[in-house]
C-alpha cells in the first residue's frame, strides 16, 4: 500500500495548483482588514468577512459588506471556506489564524494603526497580499495628497480636546485618535492631564479639566448604559454649541483613507471654536 | 344579643354547617359542645366573619352584621383562635395594646389605655407586663391572648378551645376569667371539650354534630342520652357534671 | 413614639445630614463649596456648580431614595412574612425589577418615553412579588428562602440572556451593573424618574404599620381586628403594590442593590424592638444612611475603576446573613 501515499501527494498537489490559478479566496477576520479587503480586492474574491463590517456605526463600508458571507471568526468557520489568503488583526481570532496557517493559507496580520502615517503601509500590505498593488498605490497617492493639502497645525498653543467614548473611556496618547487630534490642531486631554491609558474617567475629572472641545465618539448599535453616558444632560449643559462635536467611530476605529475625514471634521470644529472665541469677548 | 339564623356553610363539597340557628345572650357563657369536625370552629369563624356563609344571617342586637363596617364589627367582637402563631419578641403589655387597633389607637397611648390595664389585671398578667411574649409559658400565652381580646372591650368574645393543652390550674383560671367577663355583661361563646368544665362554668350549652344543632339547653338539662347521641360515649354523673365513661 | 425612638430617629437623621455633606464636599475634584453653591443657585454652568448640582447632588438624593426604599421594604416584607430574612434582594423582587428595566432600556423602548423605564422596573417587581407570594403561600421560612433563591437566579439568568441578545456591543458587560447596582454618574433626570414611584410606594408602605402589628397575632386575629388580608382592599395587595412601586422605580435607575433591606431592620431591632410599626421609619432612615455610607466608600476606594455599590453592601450584609444561619442551626428556627 506504500505506493498509495506518493500518489495521493501528487494528486493533492495538482488540486492545489489548480486552485492557485483560479481567483484567490480571501477571508478577513477583523473589522479593519474587512474594510481594506472590500476596498482593494475584487468582490468575487472575498469569501468571508467578520460580522462588524455590516454595522454602520463601526464600518464605513457597511453597505458594501452586505452581500458578502459573514461569519464569526473561529477556527471551524475559517476552515470551512477554504481560504487562500487570510487577513487578520494582531489580537483577534488567534486560533482561527493558527488553523488557517495549518492548511497552508497565506496569512497577513495587521497591527492596529496608531498614527496616520501607519495607514499607507497597511494599505500597501493588503494590496500586495490580494494581488492588486496598483489599486493600493492609487489609494495611497490620494491619501498622501489630501494630507499634504492640509495646513500644519501641530505647532503653537492649541486648544484642548477630549475624545469621550462609551463607558466614560477617554482616548489615550497611543491611539489613532490622538494622532488625528494632533493633525487637527488639538491637544489631547488624556496626554495633557496624564490620565491613565484606557481608563475610565470619572465625569467629575472631565468637567474639572474643562477641555475646549468634547468629542463624542459613538460606536455600536442599540442602547446601553455605556452609550447612554454620552447623552448625559450634564455634558450638553457643560459643553454647549461649538464645544462639542460628534465624530462617527467608523472614521477612526480603523486606519483607513476615510480617517482623514475625521481630521476634516475636527478642523472645522477648531475653526468654529476660534470664531466663537473672537466673537465672545 | 348575638343570633345566628339558618347559617349554612359548604367547603370542598362538604357541608360544614347545615341551617344552624342559635342565640348567644349577653351576660352568659355559652359552650359549644360536639365531637371533632362537628362544625363548632366553623360556626365561630363564620360568626367572626373569617369564613363566608353560604346562606343565613347573623344579627347583633337585631341588626344584621353585614350592615356594620369591618372596623365597627372589630370593636364589637373579639375572636381568639385555637392555635396561635409563635408570638413575636414584644413586651406583653404591647401585645395587649394591639387590642386597641380597631379604635385606631397605637403606641404609648394604647399601652396606657385603661382597657389595657384592666385586661392586665383581669388576666393576672400585671406582673408580667414588661416580659417578652415569646418567653411566656403555654398558660401565660393563653391568658395573654385572652387579655388582648379583653382590651378591645368587645361585647362579644368568641374563644376557640382556648383551654386546649392547659394544665388544670391554668384551665380553671382561664374559665374563671371568662366567667367574670360574662358576669360583667359580655357575651362569651367558647368551644369546649371538657364536659365537667362546661357544665360547671357555662350558662348555656349548644350541642353540635354533623353541622347541625342537636340541642340548646342549660347545663343542668344535659343528659346521658344527649351526650351519647352527640359523642357516642356513655357518661357518669359526678356532682352536678357529667364525665365521659365508656365508649359505646 | 417613645423617647428611645425619637432619639434613634434624630440620630439617624443627623448621620444622614453628615453623610450628605461629606458626599457633596468630598470628591475627585476640589472646589470652593460656597462659591459653587452660589453659582449653581444662580444657574451658571461653571465646573464647580455642574459637579455639585449636576453630579453629586443627584447621586446623594438617589442614595437617600434608594437606600430608604430598600430599608423600608425590607422591614415591611419581614413584618408581613414574619420572617427576619425577607429582603427585596434575597427574595428576587429587585431581580425582577432589574429584568423589567433591562427589557425596556436595552430594546430602546425608553427612548420613546423616559417614564417607560421605571414602568418596566415596576412591572418586573410586581410580577416578582406576586409570584413570590403565590409560591410561598403559608409556607415556612425555608419555603420562602427557596422561593426567593429560585426567583432571583431565574431573573438573573433572564437578565443575562436579554443583555446578551440585544444589539448593543456593550450590553453584555453591564450585567454586574444591574445585578449589583451602582449610583455612579446618575443625573437629576434619574431622580425625577424614580421619585413618583418611590414617594408613592414608601407612603403606602409607611401606612401599613398597624396592619403589620395586627399580623403579629396571626392572620385570623388580624382579620377580626378589621385588617383584611386579601382582596382589593387587602393588606397583601397594598404591600405588593407599595413594594413594587418603590423597589421597581429604584432598581430601574440604580440596579439591584442587595442586603440593605436585610441588614438595616436587623440592626435596628436591637434598639426599637420587634414591633413592625416601630421599625418602619428608622429602617427608611437607616437604609438611606447605609447606602450613603456605602456610596462614599465606593467613591473613596474605586478611583478610576468602577466598583459596584452592591459589592460594598453585600460585604456589610453577608456577615449578618452568616450570623442568622448560625442562629438557625442553634435554634432550628429563625
Q: What's the CATH class label of chain B?
A: Alpha Beta
CATH architecture of chain C: Orthogonal Bundle
CATH architecture of chain B: 3-Layer(aba) Sandwich
Count of beta strands of chain B = 12
Q: How can the largest sheet of chain C be summarized?
A: none
Top CATH class of chain C:
Mainly Alpha
Q: Runs of chain C with pLDDT <50, length 5+?
A: none
Query: Rg of chain B to the nearest angstrom?
Result: 18 Å
Averaged pLDDT of chain C: 89
Please give the most extensive interface between any two protein chains, plus how many residues each contributes.
A-C, 30 and 32 residues
What's the multimeric state? heterotrimer
Low-confidence runs of at least 5 consecutive residues of chain B: none
Distance between the termini of chain B: 38 Å
Q: In sequence order, what are the helices and strands of chain C, one letter per element?
A: HHHHHHHHHHHHHHH
Number of domains of chain B: 1
Pfam family, one (chain C): FecCD
Organism (chain C): Acetobacter thailandicus
Family (chain C): Belongs to the binding-protein-dependent transport system permease family. FecCD subfamily.
InterPro entries (chain C): ABC_BtuC-like, ABC_transptr_permease_BtuC
Protein architecture, described:
- The complex is a heterotrimer of chains A (281), B (248) and C (334).
- The radius of gyration of chain A is 22 Å and the shape is globular.
- Chain A contains 14 helices and nine strands.
- Chain A has helices at 4-21, 31-40, 62-65, 75-80, 94-102, 118-129, 133-149, 176-184, 189-192, 203-209, 225-228, 233-238, 249-252, 259-279; strands at 26-28, 46-48, 85-89, 106-110, 160-165, 169-170, 187-188, 213-217, 244-246.
- The model of chain A is unreliable at 6-20 (pLDDT under 50).
- By secondary structure, chain A is an alpha/beta fold.
- Chain A folds into two domains: 4-113, Nitrogenase molybdenum iron protein domain (Rossmann fold); 160-276, Nitrogenase molybdenum iron protein domain (Rossmann fold), CATH 3.40.50.1980.
- In chain B, helix 5 (114-122) runs antiparallel to helix 6.
- Chain B has helices spanning 40-48, 70-76, 92-97, 107-111, 114-122, 138-151, 168-183, 195-201, 224-231; strands spanning 2-11, 14-24, 29-33, 55-60, 63-64, 77-80, 156-160, 187-191, 204-209, 212-217, 233-238, 241-247.
- In chain B, the strands form three sheets. Chain B has a six-stranded mixed sheet with strand order 6-7-8-3-9-10, with helices on both faces.
- The radius of gyration of chain B is 18 Å and the shape is globular.
- Helices cover 33% and strands 29% of the residues of chain B.
- The mean pLDDT of chain B is 89.
- Chain C contains 15 helices and no strands.
- Helix content of chain C is 75%, strand content 0%.
- Chain C has one domain: ABC transporter involved in vitamin B12 uptake, BtuC, CATH 1.10.3470.10.
- The radius of gyration of chain C is 20 Å and the shape is globular.
- The mean pLDDT of chain C is 89.
- Chain C starts with a helix and ends with a helix.
- Chain C has helices at residues 3-25, 33-41, 47-81, 93-106, 109-112, 116-136, 141-165, 175-180, 188-206, 209-215, 219-224, 235-254, 260-272, 276-302, 309-331.
- With 334 residues, chain C is an all-alpha fold.
- The chains are: A alpha/beta (281), B alpha/beta (248), C mainly alpha (334).
Amino acid at each position: 500500500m506504500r505506493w498509495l501515499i506518493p500518489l495521493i501527494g501528487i494528486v493533492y498537489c495538482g488540486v492545489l495548483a489548480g486552485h492557485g490559478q483560479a481567483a484567490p479566496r480571501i477571508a478577513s477576520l477583523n473589522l479593519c482588514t474587512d474594510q481594506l479587503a472590500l476596498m482593494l480586492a475584487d468582490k468575487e474574491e472575498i469569501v468571508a468577512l467578520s460580522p462588524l463590517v455590516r454595522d454602520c456605526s463601526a464600518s464605513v463600508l457597511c453597505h458594501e459588506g452586505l452581500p458578502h458571507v459573514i461569519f464569526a471568526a473561529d477556527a471551524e468557520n475559517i476552515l470551512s471556506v477554504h481560504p487562500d489568503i487570510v487577513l487578520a488583526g494582531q489580537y483577534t481570532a488567534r486560533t482561527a489564524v493558527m488553523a488557517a496557517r495549518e492548511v497552508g493559507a497565506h496569512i497577513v496580520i495587521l497591527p492596529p494603526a496608531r498614527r496616520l502615517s501607519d495607514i499607507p503601509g497597511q494599505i500597501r500590505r493588503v494590496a500586495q497580499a490580494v494581488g492588486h498593488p496598483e489599486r493600493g498605490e492609487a489609494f495611497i497617492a490620494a491619501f498622501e495628497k489630501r494630507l499634504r493639502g492640509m495646513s500644519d497645525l501641530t505647532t503653537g498653543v492649541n486648544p484642548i480636546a477630549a475624545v469621550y467614548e462609551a463607558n466614560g473611556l477617554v482616548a489615550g496618547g497611543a491611539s489613532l485618535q490622538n494622532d488625528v487630534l494632533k493633525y487637527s490642531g488639538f491637544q489631547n486631554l488624556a496626554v495633557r492631564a496624564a490620565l491613565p491609558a484606557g481608563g475610565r474617567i470619572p465625569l467629575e475629572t472631565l468637567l474639572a479639566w474643562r477641555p475646549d472641545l468634547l468629542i463624542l465618539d459613538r460606536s455600536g448599535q442599540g442602547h446601553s448604559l455605556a452609550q447612554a453616558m454620552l447623552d448625559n444632560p450634564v455634558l450638553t449643559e457643560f459643553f454647549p454649541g461649538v464645544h462639542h462635536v460628534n465624530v462617527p467611530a467608523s472614521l477612526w476605529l480603523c486606519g483607513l483613507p476615510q480617517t482623514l475625514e475625521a481630521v476634516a471634521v475636527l478642523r472645522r470644529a477648531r475653526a468654529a471654536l476660534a470664531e466663537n472665541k473672537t466673537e465672545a469677548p | 344579643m348575638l343570633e345566628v339564623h339558618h347559617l349554612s356553610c359548604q367547603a370542598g363539597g362538604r357541608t360544614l354547617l347545615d341551617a344552624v340557628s342559635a342565640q348567644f345572650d349577653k351576660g352568659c357563657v355559652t359552650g359549644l359542645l360536639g365531637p371533632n369536625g362537628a362544625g363548632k370552629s366553623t360556626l365561630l369563624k363564620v360568626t367572626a366573619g373569617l369564613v363566608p356563609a353560604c346562606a343565613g344571617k347573623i344579627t347583633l342586637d337585631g341588626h344584621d352584621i353585614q350592615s356594620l363596617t369591618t372596623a365597627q364589627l372589630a370593636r364589637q367582637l373579639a375572636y381568639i383562635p385555637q392555635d396561635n402563631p409563635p408570638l413575636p419578641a414584644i413586651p406583653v403589655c404591647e401585645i395587649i395594646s394591639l387590642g386597641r387597633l380597631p379604635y385606631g389607637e397605637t403606641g404609648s397611648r394604647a399601652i396606657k389605655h385603661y382597657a389595657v390595664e384592666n385586661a392586665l389585671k383581669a388576666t393576672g398578667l400585671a406582673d408580667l407586663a414588661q416580659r417578652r411574649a415569646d418567653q411566656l409559658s403555654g398558660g401565660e400565652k393563653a391568658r395573654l391572648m385572652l387579655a388582648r381580646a379583653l382590651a378591645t372591650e368587645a361585647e362579644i368574645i368568641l374563644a376557640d378551645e382556648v383551654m386546649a393543652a392547659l394544665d388544670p390550674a391554668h384551665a380553671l383560671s382561664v374559665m374563671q376569667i371568662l366567667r367574670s367577663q360574662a358576669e360583667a355583661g359580655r357575651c362569651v361563646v367558647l368551644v369546649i371539650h371538657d364536659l365537667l368544665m362546661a357544665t360547671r362554668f357555662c350558662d348555656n350549652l349548644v350541642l353540635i354534630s354533623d353541622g347541625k344543632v342537636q340541642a340548646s339547653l342549660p347545663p343542668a338539662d344535659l343528659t346521658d342520652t344527649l351526650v351519647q347521641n352527640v359523642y357516642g360515649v356513655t357518661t357518669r354523673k359526678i356532682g352536678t357534671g357529667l364525665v365521659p365513661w365508656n365508649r359505646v | 413614639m417613645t423617647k428611645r425612638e425619637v432619639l434613634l430617629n434624630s440620630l439617624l437623621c443627623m448621620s444622614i445630614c453628615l453623610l450628605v455633606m461629606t458626599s457633596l464636599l468630598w470628591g475627585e475634584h476640589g472646589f470652593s463649596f460656597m462659591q459653587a453653591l452660589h453659582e449653581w443657585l444662580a444657574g451658571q454652568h461653571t465646573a464647580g456648580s455642574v459637579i455639585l448640582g449636576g453630579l453629586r447632588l443627584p447621586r446623594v438624593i438617589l442614595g437617600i431614595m434608594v437606600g430608604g426604599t430598600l430599608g423600608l421594604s425590607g422591614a415591611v416584607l419581614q413584618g408581613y412574612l414574619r420572617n427576619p430574612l425577607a429582603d427585596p434582594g434575597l427574595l428576587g423582587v429587585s431581580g425582577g425589577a432589574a429584568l423589567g428595566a433591562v427589557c425596556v432600556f436595552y430594546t430602546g423602548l425608553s427612548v420613546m418615553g423616559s417614564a417607560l423605564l421605571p414602568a418596566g422596573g415596576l412591572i418586573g417587581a410586581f410580577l416578582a412579588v406576586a409570584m413570590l407570594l403565590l409560591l410561598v403561600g403559608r409556607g415556612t421560612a425555608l419555603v420562602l428562602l427557596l422561593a426567593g433563591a429560585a426567583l432571583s437566579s431565574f431573573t438573573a439568568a433572564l437578565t443575562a440572556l436579554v443583555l446578551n441578545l440585544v444589539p448593543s456591543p456593550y450590553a453584555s458587560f453591564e450585567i454586574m451593573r444591574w445585578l449589583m447596582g451602582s449610583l455612579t454618574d446618575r443625573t437629576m433626570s434619574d431622580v425625577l424618574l424614580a421619585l413618583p414611584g418611590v414617594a408613592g410606594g414608601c407612603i403606602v408602605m409607611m401606612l401599613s404599620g398597624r396592619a403589620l402589628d395586627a399580623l403579629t397575632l396571626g392572620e385570623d386575629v388580624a382579620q377580626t381586628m378589621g385588617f383584611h388580608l386579601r382582596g382589593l382592599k387587602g393588606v397583601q395587595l397594598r404591600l405588593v403594590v407599595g413594594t413594587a412601586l418603590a423597589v421597581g422605580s429604584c432598581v430601574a435607575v440604580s440596579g439591584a442593590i442587595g442586603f440593605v433591606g436585610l441588614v438595616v431592620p436587623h440592626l435596628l431591632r436591637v434598639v426599637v424592638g420587634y414591633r413592625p410599626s416601630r421599625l418602619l421609619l428608622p429602617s427608611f432612615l437607616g437604609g438611606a444612611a447605609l447606602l450613603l455610607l456605602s456610596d462614599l466608600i465606593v467613591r473613596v476606594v474605586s478611583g478610576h475603576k468602577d466598583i459596584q455599590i452592591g459589592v460594598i453592601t453585600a460585604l456589610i450584609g453577608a456577615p449578618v446573613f452568616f450570623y442568622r444561619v448560625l442562629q438557625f442551626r442553634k435554634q432550628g428556627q429563625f
